[in-house]
Amino acid sequence: MRLLVLLCLLVFATPTDAATPEQHYLDLRDRYIAKFSKAKENDETFKQHDAALNELTGVLRGLVGPVTIKGLPAEGKSNADTLFKGDSGFGHLDGLGFASEGDKMQAVVTTTALLKHWLAEHREDGLPQEIAAAFKSDRFYYQAIQDSAFAKYAELPITKPASASAAVAVLGVRGNGDLKGAPHEIDVVAIQGDKVYFLAATDAVKTAEIPACEKVWKQMMARNTPEDAMAKEDQAMDAYTKCFAKEAPNQGWYAAAVKKAQSQIDLLPIR
User: Which superkingdom (predicted)?
Assistant: First the structure.
């Protein structure tokens, strides 16, 4: 009888809402962010910061598991590469980051739970909260990696791997200045089970500007409204990229871009 009572006590004492591995990572990350947001910047602080990133990397490796992407290092590190809130690049997508020499090709591997949490954290930045919608938004490709803005020019049709629940490829321009020009970066993202794979190639394909879209740009910039120059340029850029997405399939370079996007998807460990 005494044994039965003890067993019952153990059952009721066991937490039913034990923290998930992702929540353990997020709690640890947030504690470090709070710590370094108050810390004075000096050599000792930077040393502790590097140690914290290494610890987070270890937790992420346990979450994500081994990853092999051809052309990238075997060992990933935390894609969230700064824990100082004021730093440029703060708030990148939580996951394991991989990069080739010169960052010509970059990848992030994470989980759907971490992705959903990250989207919620960036709600006020304009990121769609539904994963499918986020993958079609240029804000996702901008805020997930690097510190440079990204303009999406077109979505490229690819064949989704049989075991993947989603696969998207986009063509665009990344940079800190003028984002208008011939797009050359291809980013692909795919989901298999609870794993999310994001692969970006900066000089993936050679394209060209489209005369019909150049005409749209000039017409938009010639308007008298809005008076604010930045707002006018934003509207012109929006019209320009919409035109580009519509006209891209008719261009001579388009087939090569689609083929390249498919080859990037095929680099991912999804079968």
Answer: Bacteria
Residues 184 and 120 in one domain: yes
| CA-angle at 131, arms to 130 and 135, nearest 5° | 120
Q: What is the pTM of this model?
A: 0.90
Helix, strand or coil, per DSSP, at residue 176: coil
Per residue in 136-184, pLDDT tens?
Answer: 999 999 999 877 899 999 999 999 999 999 999 999 999 988 899 999 9
3-state secondary structure of 23: helix
Residues 102 and 195 in one domain: yes
SS3 content of the chain, % helix, strand, coil (to 5): 45, 15, 35
Alpha helices in 65-176 (DSSP H): 112-121, 131-134, 138-144
Asked if 69 and 267 count as a contact pair (C-beta separation under 8 A), the reply is yes
pLDDT tens per residue, range 104-127: 999 999 999 999 999 999 999 999
